[in-house]
Amino acid sequence: MSTVNAMTADLDGIRARAAAATPGPWGAEVEGTRLMVLDRGAGLPVAFIGSAEDDQAQADAAFIAAARGDVDALLAVIDHLRAKHAEVQDLSMRRGEEIMRLRGELRAAR
After folding, report:
1. pTM higher than 0.70, yes or no?
2. Full DSSP string of 75-110
3. How far apart are CA 78 and CA 74, in angstroms?
């Protein structure tokens, strides 16, 4: 499994690819002997994956179909965590400044 740093990942590129893709929700369906991922709203195929009898193709189709919603959900989590990270950094900076001020007051009072 590759390691991706969420702080340096190409999130703008990921967002652009997600926005350009067919809107969801997507689902995995069997058409004849082929597996396909389709736009459940329009009922149109997004991709043909492989043989309906192939277990790996079934797993791949399920993954791809779920990715349409998963990518948006993961981007929302990253946005939320980045906002919280910024809040914590700001709080830490303010507390550090307060500690420095109190140390100065303590030195002056000695």
Report:
1. yes
2. HHHHHHHHHHHHHHHHHHHHHHHHHHHHHHHHHHH-
3. 6
